Amino acid sequence: MKYDDKAKQQQEIDEILVLMKVLYNRLQQTNLLKAEDREHLAYQTGEIVLACKKLYTEVTPFLATPESQKSECLFDFMVELRMNLLNLKDLIEDFEDSFMGSLTEPLETEKTSPGEGLNLN
Questions:
Q1: φ, ψ for residue 86 (rounded to 5)?
Q2: DSSP per residue, 64-105
Q3: DSSP secondary structure string, 2-51?
Q4: Three-class SS of residue 60?
Q5: Can you give the pLDDT at residue 1?
Q6: Nearest 5°: phi and psi at 67?
Q7: How confident is residue 107, by pLDDT bands cut at 50, 70 and 90?
Q8: Which secondary structure element, helix H or strand E, spans residue 53, and what is its range?
């Protein structure tokens, strides 16, 4: 991703971390998947959600602007849209591969209490 400023980059990192923590804790409470798989899949989910948010809030609003009426601007938009969709496709395929791979591994009983494991501080 291209970042215009450090504040925006930090905000996106924070958003991913919040989502990761919530999902990881839910997976841990239900003892679903191994700890390392939980963390990896939680991170991948955060990336996917952030990519969807960017597509919705930064890329597609262009269509509501007067510039979108110009064919050269519309072509540039379509190129950017394609790149964002391909990125999203890659993220989803990576998630799918990781998730399906985690299902083929036997689940071990873990001796951790709720709140242990993922440290996002």
A1: -65, -40
A2: GSGGGGSHHHHHHHHHHHHHHHHHHHHHHHHHHHHHHHHHTS
A3: --S-HHHHHHHHHHHHHHHHHHHHHHHHTT-S-HHHHHHHHHHHHHHHHH
A4: helix
A5: 46
A6: -60, -25
A7: low
A8: helix 35-54
Q: How far is CA 106 from the centre of its chain?
A: 26
Query: For residue 67, how many C-alpha atoms fall within 13 Å in the half-sphere facing its CB?
Result: 8
Q: Using CA atoms, how far apart are residues 78 and 80, in angstroms rounded to an integer?
A: 5
Q: What is the mean pLDDT of the chain?
A: 85
Q: What residue type is assigned to position 80 of the chain? A: E
- Of 110, 109, 117, 112, the closest CA to residue 23 belongs to 117
Cα–Cα dist 43/64, whole Å: 32
Phi-psi region at 115: left, alpha or beta (left = phi > 0; alpha = psi -120 to 50)? left
Residue 9 has pLDDT above 50, yes or no: yes
